[in-house]
């Protein structure tokens, strides 16, 4: 069956099988930043933003996403043009093996869209559901708080320059 959805701001039509997960459909379409982990919605490696909300793509049927907006890590940046969140993760050494990072970065993006200045407790709550076997989450939490500060500085500078 063919479904139409917006992936990273681009309207796409995908051929999907009945019962195919959004994870498999996205990977089949070349979005390899979406990672396969537990396939049970507990590790966070497959997280994408579905209409702006962090969602486990391994638990979603692709056909159920017809007409929805999907954001993958590819939309936020690349090594040669990283998003502020990606830069903060790298600077704070919040990236080791990197497998969990795309989901964490997308969750961070959604968090900072809703709450520009989260507390450490709120950051840790947002990361609940993301499993990282390489770190104790301290570095990721620092990275997220740093990204929040930088984004606030960018917004302030943008407001000043528009006066």
Describe the structure.
This protein is an alpha+beta fold. It has 2 domains: 74 residues, Ubiquitin-like (UB roll) (Roll); 78 residues, DNA polymerase, domain 1, CATH 1.10.150. The chain is 37% helix and 14% strand. The protein contains 5 helices and 5 strands. A 5-stranded mixed sheet has the order 2-1-5-3-4, covered by helices on one side. Strand 1 and strand 2 form a beta hairpin. Helix 2 packs across helix 5. The longest helix has 24 residues. The protein is globular. The N and C termini lie far apart (51 Å). The model has no long low-confidence stretch (mean pLDDT 94).
Question: Gist?
Answer:
This protein has 163 residues and is α+β, with helices and mostly antiparallel strands. 37% of the residues lie in helices and 14% in strands.
């Amino acid at each position: 069956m063919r479904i139409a959805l917006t992936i990273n701001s681009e309207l796409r039509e995908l051929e999907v099988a009945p019962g195919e997960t959004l994870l498999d459909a996205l990977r089949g379409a070349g979005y390899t930043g979406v990672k396969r982990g537990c396939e049970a919605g507990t590790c966070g490696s497959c997280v994408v933003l579905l209409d702006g909300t962090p969602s486990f793509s391994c638990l979603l049927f692709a056909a159920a996403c017809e007409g929805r907006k999907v954001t993958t890590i590819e939309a936020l940046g690349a090594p040669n043009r990283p998003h502020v969140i990606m830069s903060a993760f790298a600077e704070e050494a919040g990236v080791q093996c990197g497998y969990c990072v795309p989901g964490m970065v997308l969750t961070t993006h959604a968090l900072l869209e809703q709450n520009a200045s989260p507390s450490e407790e709120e950051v840790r709550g947002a990361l609940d559901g993301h499993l990282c076997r390489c770190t104790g989450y301290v570095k990721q939490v620092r990275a997220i708080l740093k990204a929040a500060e930088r984004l606030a500085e960018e917004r302030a500078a943008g407001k000043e320059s528009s006066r």
